[in-house]
Design goal:
There is one protein chain. This protein has a single domain, classed as NAD(P)-binding Rossmann-like Domain (Rossmann fold, 3-Layer(aba) Sandwich), CATH 3.40.50.720. 41% of the residues lie in helices and 18% in strands. The strands form 4 sheets. The chain has a 7-stranded parallel beta sheet with strand order 3-2-1-4-5-6-11, with helices on both faces. Strands 12-9-14 form a 3-stranded mixed beta sheet. The protein is globular, with a radius of gyration of 19 Å. The relative contact order is 0.14. The chain binds UDP-4-deoxy-4-formamido-beta-L-arabinopyranose.
Length: 348
């Protein structure tokens, strides 16, 4: 089965690509490489070849806003009698802080790009899509754990683009309920790395997110971690989040493809998280305990847009996808540290 994986060289995309290829899917990666390195693709190939696995991976550098390119991708695949049967759509901009500064860019890439992709899929009768959505759309959460019917109230342009895309999916599905098979996966906090240490998270510049910042402190690239607030209404005053191992998240996508294949048509929105909440101080403590490294930190004031607690109710993923996360917080720390140790400067 051939799948198109947009954003397939990014942190999440590269882990999904590797898993798809290991499971025998033919994968076509489309990535603009504005936020990722082609070295991730090389690492995937090295891993598969090292395991003597045959694979069919094609990589195209391009932007989902390029309709001519999207048309060509689908038409060429059909001409080779190996048409694209499903799309995993991860391409998009994902920085909350950046979206506040460049909202129009986020609306253009994320929303117009997705509209382009869906139009091309429709024209080529490809009706199966798994989409990378985000827990950010829940905004200022007032109750945890968060289920899919929690209030939707994004508080930044990035989150608003994800809501707009889910609304697009709803309208599209309603327009042709016989054909469209759509699964929107709302990610909580994907962290860690592939156990081989060959691929992992490599943020450009100063990491916005906690986990890659911690691994960069551990490897000596950063002097200390800034903890954004220790006065939250949580177990120890620091922010509580749902950290899900990137491999658990990736496996959830394989389950989602299988789910779409099993349906005549559907439109489902599903949380993907660990279902557990850990505070910043608990993450620091677990990381130090698991890796033997020290993570010095400095308490700072709260970060705009943060909430006290955010973690998932994952009962729907269990029920619909037959999926449950398997990896522990300790495994997240060990795998994330192995990647950073083997790649002190990431892919560069
Ligand atoms: C986690 C906790 C911070 C950095 C973000 C995006 C969301 C999604 C996942 C894309 C919070 C604290 C963080 C630091 C800290 N990405 N922290 N010092 O904010 O839950 O979600 O990533 O979909 O869109 O918003 O993740 O890792 O930034 O923060 O103290 O240097 O760590 O305050 O409590 P977040 P995060």
């Amino acid at each position: 089965m051939r799948v198109l994986l947009t954003g397939g060289s990014g942190f999440i995309g590269s882990h999904i690509a590797l898993l798809l290829l290991e499971k025998g899917y033919d994968v076509l990666i489309l990535d603009s490489f504005v936020n990722s390195s082609s070295k991730a693709i090389n690492a995937i190939k090295a891993y598969l070849e090292n395991k003597n696995l045959n694979y069919d991976l094609q990589t195209i550098s391009g932007d989902i806003r390029d309709k001519k390119l999207l048309d060509k991708i689908f038409i060429d695949a059909a001409k080779k009698s190996n048409p694209i049967q499903a799309v995993l759509h991860l391409a998009g901009l994902k920085s909350v802080s950046d979206s506040l500064v460049n909202p129009l860019h986020y609306w253009d890439v994320n929303v117009c790009g997705t509209q382009n992709l869906l139009a091309t899929m429709n024209e080529n009768e490809c009706y199966s899509i798994v989409f990378s959505s985000s827990a950010t759309i829940y905004g200022l959460t007032d109750s945890v754990p968060i289920s899919e019917d929690h209030k939707i109230s994004p508080i930044n342009p990035y989150g608003k683009t994800k809501v707009a895309i889910e609304n697009m999916f709803y309208d599209l599905y309603r327009s042709n309920m016989k054909s469209w098979k759509i699964c929107s996966l709302r990610y909580f906090n994907p962290v860690g790395a592939h156990p081989s240490g060959l691929i992992g998270e490599d943020p450009i510049g100063i990491p916005n997110n906690l986990f890659p910042y911690i691994t960069q402190v551990a490897i000596g690239r950063r002097k200390f971690l800034n903890v954004f607030g220790d006065d939250w209404d949580t177990i120890d005053g620091s922010g509580v989040r749902d950290y899900i191992h990137i491999m658990d998240l990736s496996e959830g996508h394989i389950n989602a493809i299988d789910y779409l294949c099993s349906k005549k048509s559907c439109f489902e929105i599903i949380n993907l998280g660990s279902g557990k909440g850990y505070s910043v101080f608990q993450i620091i403590s677990q990381f130090e305990q698991s890796t033997g490294s020290q993570i010095p930190f400095s308490i700072q004031c709260r970060r705009d847009g943060d909430v006290a607690r955010c973690y998932a109710d994952i009962s729907k993923a269990k029920k619909f996808l037959g999926w449950t996360p398997k990896r522990s917080l300790e495994q997240i720390c060990l795998d994330g540290w192995k990647w950073q140790r083997k790649n002190p400067n990431g892919y560069s």
